[in-house]
Amino acid sequence: MDIQLDKAPCGYFSISDAGLIQSINQTLLDMLHYERNELLGQHIHSTMSVTNKMFFQTYFYPYIQLYGHVDEMYFSFRTSSHEDMPVLLNGVRQERNGVTFIDCVVLMMRKRIEHEKDILQTKTKLEELYQATNEANKRLELLHEEYELKQQELLGVNHRLEMMASTDALTGLKNRRFFQDSLLAQLALFQETQRPFSLLIVDIDHFKKINDTYGHPVGDLVLTNLARLLQSMSRDRDIAARYGGEEFVIILSGANQEKAIIAAERYCTTIASTDWGEYSITVSIGAATVMPGDTDQSLINRADTALYASKTGGRNRITHADHLVNSK
Description:
- The protein is an alpha+beta fold.
- The chain is built from 12 helices and 10 strands.
- It has a 5-stranded antiparallel beta sheet.
- The radius of gyration is 26 Å and the shape is elongated.
């Protein structure tokens, strides 16, 4: 690849009909935070989330096979740190030396609303173009509309499946699987950037007594109401999830030990002072802040040990794992 294309002010990649990356310029590698040898020969899907893989498979491929090009498609790639990068994608299918390639140009998009206006204008122009075609093209228009409808239905089903796979059915919070995946992603980001984060494990005090006194339906209502409160108190970038039983977990993005303690005390105090009706709720919280060398399990174990200290220390309180270490 010549230096002008490699350093062009827009991303460029070329894939085979099978989707394998044949070439990629340095501009796009810098956008995605990859090294060239990490992507060459890999499937283009390796740079996409599950949803965008489905969109690419069900829209980009069929369209470029039918028309030979795709213009101004709004899309999102995923960087090596698992962050979505919205782009505008143009592609053309052509042959070189008897081999078919799909060459694509990538422009980073920073203003989604402006792009959506462009998409709407493009759609309007397409509709006007279809209306101007002769009778022979009407069948093609109907088939295209049917295809678009099926595509949207497929994307909708895929979105609902993703939501079901990551959501706790009772409380509506994220589930344990989603939490574990998010924790691994946070650890990977910490290893790359050293940006801190903390983990809280929240356990309802004497929850069995609530079930025994009021019955399991009330117990389920307690879990649901507490989940809503935790969600409402959490920042958009934090992750609140149900870990199991009466235990909840919260990943505090960007929080060091001091900020984790402040947040945990706020959760503990607010829950204890909330009017729950016939019953009262307090929680015990164990906190841990990520350290170099931590794994997902070691971080969970430290937060769980801190939770145990809160329980044995009288409940309705918070304990940070570092305080246990420092007190030894």
